Amino acid sequence: MSTAAPSAGACFAVVIVNYNGGAMLEDCVRSALSEAVPAAQLILVDNGSSDGSIDHLQRSVGDIQVIRNSCNAGFARAVNQGIDRAMRAATPPELVLLLNNDAQLEAGALQAFADGFDSLPSLAIAGGQLHYPDGRLQSAFAPLPSLTEEVLPRSLLKLIDPARFRRKTSASAPMPVECVLGACLAVRAAVLPRLGLLDEDFFFYFEEIEWCQRTHRMGAEVYHLPGARAIHTQGQTADRFRGPARVEYQRSKLTFFRKTRGPAAYLAASAILVARTLVNALCGAVAVAATLGLNAHLRMKARTYLYLLCWHALLRPVNWGLPGKCSGKENAQGGANHGRA
Predict the structure, then answer these.
(1) What is the Cα–Cα distance from 231 to 233, expressed in whole angstroms?
(2) Most buried of 27, 126, 153, 205, CB within 10 angstroms?
(3) Do residue 211 and residue 254 come from a single domain?
(4) Pairing mode of beta strands 141-142, 95-99
(5) Do both 229 and 283 map to the same domain?
(6) Is this structure's pTM higher than 0.70?
(7) Which domain covers residue 39, as residue numbers?
(8) Is residue 177 part of a domain?
(9) What is the distance between the alpha carbons of residues 51 and 53, in angstroms, rounded to a whole number?
(10) How confident is the model over 132-157, as pLDDT tens digits?
């Protein structure tokens, strides 16, 4: 791999999924271009945005590749469309970077990714160091989901096994991890024929976690690369649709347990989620009543948990969740399910 500092960006295709990203989308795209990614290797997949963010971007940035879906196809399906386009190029990339539309690469991030892949021949997936705009570290990696995490509080798990259950670090050396988070994630293109693309049964959340699990099962490595730094404002789409986003999170968590942990674990995780949602909904209602409904944050939390509880009570209707979804399995661009159960 040719990874001299001035040209590291040329080794990458960058896939950005957008859904009403507004001004933050332009900042994201410009950060990739500033890392010397050729415009022809930057692929933007729009999931039926209605805010004009794509038109604005094309006017301000110029000619970049855009795949327009007429509806919200979900993160996994949109990423797969972008990867498929990238790999069909006359000269396919050596590395593919998935970059959230609310993230911005810092200078040298792609060089750090390229160096990591060069030095670790078995490395298949790597995640960068994520931080808030004020510099505080964000969670960037995690243990693979388990029933233990569903039952015990995270604070206790960190005391029991701090190395496994930490989610961020200020250490500077590359570190093997169970899974990395998808806001700034790079994959070695050469492993894709064996690894497969993202599992499109995950609409939003957990798709990269399942991908990392698949990576371990095929004997490859997943690493956190602290030198690959990105600013991440985190959760912009989820914040706009808090209740529906939580439905998508719980649905994806249950999908993960169903597909990877077996029927017994799925039923246990399901029961735990329902019980926890019920307790949180009751506590939220009590908190709102105790403050006479004057605390806006408590009202929002109570509404979110009530929405979740209704979703469970109605046997988890498939049409609940984030808005604008494509209907059925068909993709607005004609894509297929690329995941491997």
Answers:
(1) 7
(2) 126
(3) no
(4) unpaired
(5) no
(6) yes
(7) 5-238
(8) yes
(9) 5
(10) 999 999 999 999 999 999 999 989 99
